[in-house]
Write a structure and sequence with these properties.
41% of the residues lie in helices and 22% in strands. The chain is built from five helices and seven strands. It has helices spanning 14-24, 39-53, 83-92, 101-115, 135-154; strands spanning 2-8, 29-33, 58-62, 77-81, 118-122, 157-162, 165-170. Strands 3-2-4-5-1-6-7 form a seven-stranded mixed sheet, sandwiched between helices. With 174 residues, it is an alpha/beta fold. It starts with a strand and ends with a strand.
Length: 174
């Protein structure tokens, strides 16, 4: 099993790179979409991502919380897009795990890994801008930062995307 963690800032090319990388790995290809459709901005972003991956052969699974409950039909390659949305959903959605978000997401990712041959996880670089935030945002940054650290420690390949280009933080460019 190869495990990839892709991070970077907003709109840096993570999604496009993740899709191309996942398609280079064995089929079937699953796309676990965690962005909830709230408002015009998220609907537009979801539509853009759907159009971007149209015809690529991904089987899309929409799951906003409780990823431990996802059952893949067969082993293949899973693209989890993205850890940032999943974290916010688990922390703040009524159906989420709330204060147990970190543990719930780690259990879910481990269960997904057990069901697939390869996994590509997309996340964001948060908390490095030095800005001051309210307690709710700080909680989100802390949980996502801990998830990122734990997955980076476990995963074979960790890339930071900048201007659509992968910078290898761990492993080798694949």
């Amino acid at each position: 099993m190869m495990r990839f963690l892709l991070t970077g800032g907003s709109a840096c090319g993570k999604s496009s790179y993740a899709e191309k990388l996942a398609r280079r790995l064995p089929a079937p290809h699953y796309y676990l979409a965690a962005m909830q459709p709230f408002g015009e901005e998220s609907l537009a972003r979801i539509a853009r991502h759907q159009k971007q991956r149209a015809g690529m052969g991904f089987q899309t699974i929409e799951r906003y919380t409780d990823i431990v409950g996802v059952d893949l039909p067969e082993r293949g390659t899973l693209l989890l897009e993205c850890l940032c949305n999943l974290t916010a959903n688990e922390l703040y959605d009524e159906a989420g795990a709330g204060q147990q978000a970190l543990a719930a997401i780690l259990r879910g990712v481990a269960r997904l890994e057990a069901q697939c041959e390869h996994i590509v996880v997309v996340t964001n670089d948060v908390g490095s801008d030095g800005a001051e935030y309210d307690n709710m945002v700080l909680e989100y940054i802390d949980v996502l930062g801990e998830l990122n650290r734990r997955l980076a420690a476990q995963y074979d390949h960790v890339y930071e995307l900048c201007c659509g280009l992968p910078c290898v933080l761990k492993g080798e460019l694949w």
